[in-house]
Amino acid sequence: MARPKSGHPTELELQILKVLWERSPLTVREVREGLAAAGRELAHTSVITTLNVMVRKQYLRSRREGKAYFYEPLVGREEASQRMLSDMVDRVFDGSAKALVLNLFDADEFDADELKDLRRLIQQKAKEQKK
Hints:
Oligomer: single chain
Strand order of the largest sheet: 1-3-2
């Protein structure tokens, strides 16, 4: 049975996007080297296949220069993270952002500076909603 289509990148696609967000455009070889540096060794053909799928999904654009193809992201880090987070809130927390945040507080330890930043962000968001 085929996996249902997703509105966000797979794990490998996200790793490739991370490589390309750091530096792009890159060739297949350079993307493969970036993945290897991050601990993901893949065959050259696997990287080509995944890059081409990502072009079809409109996550990347490719252009040919001589014999080499160069790839660059069409989707930014913030847009991808927003899509993935929205999907998680919908699927895991039944649309409740509050449940997600409460779960984060239970799952992670925050130091004083992080808590201060979170308070500031919450106050800022509250001010924005009053307008």
